[in-house]
Amino acid sequence: MVPIAIKIDPADNVAIIANDGGLQAGTEVLGSVVLKDFIPQGHKVTLLDIEAGEGVVRYGEVIGQAIESLSAGSWLHDRHIRIPEAPALEDLPLATREAKNRPALEGYTFEGYRNADGSVGTRNVLGIMTSVQCVTGVADHVVRKVKSELLQKYPNVDDVIAITHSYGCGVAIQAPNAAIPIRTLMNLAKNPNLGGEVLVVGLGCEKLQPGRLVPKGSDVEANVVCLQDIHEDGFEGMIARIMEMVETRLARLDKRSRETCPVSDLVIGVQCGGSDAFSGITANPVVGFATDMIVRSGGTVLFSEVTEVRDAVHLLTPRAVNVEVAKTLLEEMSWYDNYLEEGNSDRTANPTPGNKLGGLSNIVEKALGSIIKSGTSPISDVLGHGEQVKKKGLVFAATPASDFVCGTQQLASGIALQVFTTGRGTPYGLAMAPVVKVSSRTALSKRWFDLIDLDAGRIATGEADIETVGEELFRMILDIASGRIQTAADKLGLANDLVVFNPAPIT
Ligand code: CA
Fold first, then answer.
1. Which residues surround ligand 1, an ion (CB under 5 A)?
2. Which of 7, 224, 362, 439 could form a disulfide with 445 if both were Cys (CB 3.0 to 4.6 A apart)?
3. Strand order across the beta sheet in which 198-202 lies
4. Which residues, in sequence order, are bridge partners of residue 81?
5. What predicted TM-score, i.e. pTM, was given to this entire model?
6. What whole-number distance in Å separates Cα of residue 193 and Cα of residue 433?
7. Cα 468 to ligand 1 centroid, rounded to whole Å
8. 403 and 345 within one domain
9. 261-291: per-residue pLDDT in tens?
10. How far apart are the CA of 271 and the centre of ligand 1, in A?
């Protein structure tokens, strides 16, 4: 076993131990540094003597100040490092980076489902949406019944799903922040994988009236069923009415077929969850490379997770296409700073204990690794929480970093597929869109061989480079978008619940 320590930037005074199982004291790394302690995989070794108060540098950025002096070769643990202040949101460089003139990529296509509104789906799914939690049991019952009795008669329909959530009633629906959950739900109904077909099941007396979930231009009466308005007797009467509406929609969806679409029609989202110190070296750079390929092909990639870009925002504002986009990005950061403050909390609420075990010392280090998913393209637009995508290219869609909330909001923004990187491992999946899981470590890919789609850990051991694995991911995205291959989560039928972000009061 060759001892491997990875230094990212020439200015770094720490490196990451790459070997599975860590490295023993006495091992020499990078040709000159002898380890003074045992250092676990993913954790940091000091490459130089670092004085107390001196900056600890990774990714060429200060990730914190050393609390005590450490000589070269020491294990730099998160207890040795003090988190710096978050970058101030004033006086940042706005839209200052000159756009690199990279040639457009031509000729890449996928087989998608074209919708009347111009969006393109990667699946053909019937969604049964609830307007309120009260009717969830009924929607779930219908889905089970459709799957066992009807779906096989419609071979071109990929799936039927219940789009359920905890919003809808018992909420301060007039509160200013209620705009976020309401538009998230309205936009979820328009997700490209639902083919423009919505069936809304409501109760009748709820605050969020079900008609609001029917997209503008669609007939409200034809697309909504309210349980309190059904006059047939009992539960069976309700189910019969909904099944009738389901069947007309299945028949329409079944007539659709895939057609060849340019990558410029593709909208995907990227996020990370259960990150470790390798995420920023292997999996996230791979995603960044694929992101650049999609953007250069004219397509759209949404990156998100406000608390995981906040500490690296000074590296993003220069990349905005114009000052206005940069300012919108800062407004989203500031909104979230206030949101955390109102909850008597701050950015140190992230990372998780698992992130720390994986070698991530603090949110600064996590953010620097996280933003690499965005690649190097200019940022063409910024979306508020749950807003629908409007522009092509690389788009920042504000979401919490929480995996399920980010997934829900990116679906609302209109992604037809999501790429998810993980170092610690998660069985995460979405019912509405395929999720391609990329592992930051080979050990995880081996252990979870049937849960992970792509192993980026090969990069840490030098077996592969970012370009090779990045292009592999790009081609995998197109294959999955075309229905040629299935993701690990889809094969296993794994999907998380939707979780709608509601920063407004519950009554
Ligand atoms: Ca996340």
1. 271, 273, 401, 403, 406
2. 439
3. 159-163, 125-130, 198-202, 224-226
4. 66
5. 0.97
6. 7
7. 25
8. yes
9. 999 999 999 999 999 999 999 999 999 999 9
10. 5
